[in-house]
Amino acid sequence: MLYMSLFSTVCVLYTQGMGNKEWREFGRTEVIDNTLNPDFVGKFILDYFFEERQNLRFDFILYFFFCVSYLNDKNVLLLTLQDFLGQAYCTLGEVVGSLGSRLEKALGGIPGKKCGTIIVKAEELNNCRESVMMQFCGNKLDKKDFFGKSDPFLVFYRSNEDGTFTICHKTEVVKNTLNPVWQAFKIPVRALCNGDYDRTIKVEVYDWDRDGSHDFIGEFSTSYRELSGGQSQFNVYEVRSCVLLDVTLLSFLVDIEVTFLDYIKGGLCVFPLSQTGNPAQPTSLHYMSPYQLNTYAMALKAVGEIIQDYDSDKMFPALGFGAKLPPDGRVSHEFALNGSPQNPYCAGIDGVMEAYYQSLKSVQLYGPTNFSPVINHVARYAASVKDGSQYFVLLIITDGVISDMAQTKESIVNASCLPMSIIIVGVGPAEFDAMIELDGDEVRISSRGRYAERDIVQFVPFRDYIDRTGNHILSMARLAKDVLAEIPDQFLSYMRTRGIKPLPAPPPYTPPGQPIHTQI
Ligand SMILES: *[C@@H]1O[C@H](CO)[C@@H](O)[C@H](O)[C@H]1NC(C)=O
Questions:
Q1: 187 and 323 both lie in a single domain
Q2: Do both 142 and 155 map to the same domain?
Q3: What local confidence, expressed as pLDDT, does residue 277 receive?
Q4: Is the CB of 447 under 6 A from ligand 1?
Q5: 348: left (phi over 0), alpha (psi -120 to 50) or beta
Q6: Which residues form the C2 domain (predicted)?
Q7: Candidate from 214-223, 352-361, 444-453, 456-465 with smallest mean pLDDT
Q8: 372 lines ligand 1 (CB under 6 A)
């Protein structure tokens, strides 16, 4: 006889090596029995890099257990079969960039079949930058000393992966009391629970003794998550030893350095404005060559694909500069690549590439190369939303020739007080001295004695990233990494100087249907 007695599901996370793009198992969730709507508790702890495209793959596997035959009354022979339930691909940036850092995706992988939905939630472990200030008091402490009072102190332990405990804090001794109030103390969250909010924190209560043989009064366990509820009935801990006593949390204050992700998860959109197609000079022989075309397209794709994860609608205005436009041959330094000035938005980075290729066919590339108009164009958008709800990233891909250096510097100084950053990728063999000056990493850029309020420009020369072995995937990933590395800090410098606080994350989500649910 053969019948199905039980089934279980598990979610397996795969990540990709940066160079070879090979999928490797990163980890798996716990196995959940007998439901097709598992809500996994298991978490994956990943390092997040804004400037990298971190591809993820989630595979769902179903296990069936078949009872093959009865061996005797108690024992049966079981056969396990595996089935593939579906999979989902995304990037870590996509999850983080979604509202509330919560991404919902349809599962695919089985042609012609609806496989369900995955919900992935990301949460930043604040282990490096978060500290908590806590204060405890005790009541009804056991009389331990001859004189009828105690000298109590608390010892905090963090639990380790292997189940052992490491001491992480000792309070002072409060002498001669039955109702001690210990001083508030500050402890890094990393020391308290290794940044894991659900990890057990063990607290032991002792009675101090002059000779060092402190008497153990009792102990209790809690976690960061429980403690973060602050003073309440849930944070009164009964310590059961020979008598009953209470340790009460009086206050719990988180001291946190705000990061880029705090703003992103509050629902902020980063709007990249792409600018492509420097016209090079009319004399440039390389421009229309397949190689050069590739260079522009490759740089745009490498950087654009990372940034687009943070844009909610993925519509990018794309502008060209330095060309004669049809029908009258007017020279323009800010024209819509898609030929529609009222609506220069392109759908996704693919749409921008398409518009770029089309525009090469219709416009006549023409010098001089002015940067200032296009910077001012984006600055006008940025100036209209200064409340921190949007941040603009202008991507300029250029051969490095610049005809309006003085105005460009002034435009950058002007823009340095706006929510925007400028990324410049230099292509071709030219000298990029002017671009390095605009970058301002060494000397803060200034114009007529006025200095930029903050550094908003990042420049990289494309040729430094050409891989002689032809591994474009790796070289473009490196390019994007270097070009985007400064964006989170530039973004934060704007928010901090303006005193803009992150919006609170949207309330926790309760699924309407019953989709497959996992957590990072
Ligand atoms: C910079 O801002 C000033 C004051 O708003 C403006 O007059 C000037 O034209 C701007 N410079 C450029 C190059 O756009």
A1: no
A2: yes
A3: 41
A4: no
A5: left
A6: 99-237
A7: 352-361
A8: yes
- Which of 333, 412, 414 has most ligand 1 atoms within 8 Å of its beta carbon, as the pocket-test mutant? 414
Q: Are residues 301 and 214 in the same domain?
A: no
Cα 410 to ligand 1 centre (Å): 7
434 shares a domain with 299: yes
Please give the distance of CA 469 from its chain centroid, rounded to a whole number: 31
Best residue among 410, 413, 422, 450 to mutate for probing ligand 1's pocket (most ligand atoms within 8 Å of CB) is 410
The CA dihedral of 193, 196, 197, 200, to the nearest 10 degrees, is: -50
Predicted pLDDT of residue 286: 32
In a domain, 280, yes or no: yes
**What is the reported pLDDT for 149?**
72
The number of the ligand 1 atom at minimal distance from the alpha carbon of 414 is 1
For residue 281, the model assigns a pLDDT of 38
Tokens of 80: 């396990």
Tell me the pLDDT band of 401, cut-offs 50, 70 and 90.
confident
Q: Locate the ligand 1 atom nearest the alpha carbon of residue 375 and give its number.
A: 14
Residue 419 and residue 308 share a domain: yes
- Of 74, 106, 124, which one is at a domain's C-terminal end? 124
The size of the chain, in residues, is 520
Residue-level pLDDT at 91: 93
Co-location of 251 and 287 in the same domain = no
CA angle at residue 429 from 18 to 281, to 5 degrees? 120
325-364 tens-digit pLDDT: 888 888 887 888 888 888 888 888 888 888 887 887 787 7
Q: Which structural domain, as residue segments, surrounds residue 305? A: 261-485
Strands 3-16 and 55-70: antiparallel
Q: Is the CB of 414 under 6 A from ligand 1?
A: yes
**CB-CB contact of 357 with 288 (8 Å):** no
- Asked if residue 410 has its Cβ within 6 Å of ligand 1, the reply is yes
Four-residue CA torsion sign, 184, 188, 192, 193: positive
Point out the ligand 1 atom lying closest to the alpha carbon of residue 410. 13
Residue nearest to atom 4 of ligand 1 (CA): 414
Picking from 214-223, 364-373, 399-408, 477-486, which range would have the lowest pLDDT averaged per residue?
364-373
